[in-house]
Task: structure prediction
Amino acid sequence: MEPISYEHISPRRRRRRMMAIASSITAATLVTVAFGHAAASAHGHRPSFGPQQQIELASNDTMGAATSTTAGPTTSTTTATTATAAAAQMRDRTTLRFRTIDDSLDPTFNQLLGINDKGRIVGYYGSGADAAHPNHGFRVLPPYDQRNFFGKDFPGAIQTQAVGVNNAAVVVGFYVDGAGANIGFVAHGQHYAPVANPATSKTTPFNQLLGINNHGIAVGFFNDADGASHGYTYDTNMGTFTAVALPVQADSVTATGIADDGDVSGFYVQDKVTRGFLLHHGSFHALSFGARTNTQALGVNNADQVVGSYVDDVGATHGFLWSPGAKLVTVDDPNGAGGTVVNGLNNRGQLVGFFTDAAGNTHGLLASMRMADDGAGR
Result:
């Protein structure tokens, strides 16, 4: 059973890449089967928690740039160190406390993908590489013991992934049916509703919902008949779709996160280069860090702090935290020998994602953020 990613490259290239890096670069690979809460909650083992670690991360002045384009004719380019009013919200140094959270049903592969302000996390376990390690969506509640894990699989699906959650505990994600189609979903408790943009390809349907705000507006993408991705917002209350339009030419666009005021994060591909973006109050910020070949913005909160991943000059994957006018903060889990991805964040200074260890296993990470005055950690 092959894991499915929402990074939009060819299936053949995707398979090679996933095998080569043990799924550490993709922001979310898919999930599966056995719906309901019984499977996870009835399992009495505790998850494989690593020791809680604290690390002070220096902001990086040189890793890349963010290009800001307003709706008017003026275009300006600013590095991630430009001083603006927003920069006051992010100090020169950021202290993060890391915690590894794995569902013990498969401690070799876990990804934490979304978190709300109550600390409720959604994600999945199982690589999906074979029948022995199927993908299963879950939600996990504080204090994140095994008894706090609950299954979140779309009823009857072959694979499912829970990706985003808002403060009302509405969960969005996607699943794969028996015909191999990717279909988005919205879940209110035990009520699941499929979501498919009507413009998606009829021959190979591909829809994924990747985030949701507290007004019930979700974001995601669909693939057209040529395999190009198109980002959109979806109003879960009205059942309406709206295209996410960028002021640049792009081969594909993916919308990954949405703040309560409608600001949208995501990434786009242009001439085989992947760049992140933030649509912020009518302005467009293009994000390109590290080697500037592969940057993905994967989530945004109400302060317009953006998280994601980038690839550096030697091909290593790093997580990041960024906001307009503030310095880029590179996020590497202390145990992440094979790379780190930050996939989501809330409004309370908590980040979620995953890392790959030296043995090639993928683990969920929770990082608690605290700003340190004058660059001094505490």
About this structure: The first strand starts at residue 53 and ends at 60.
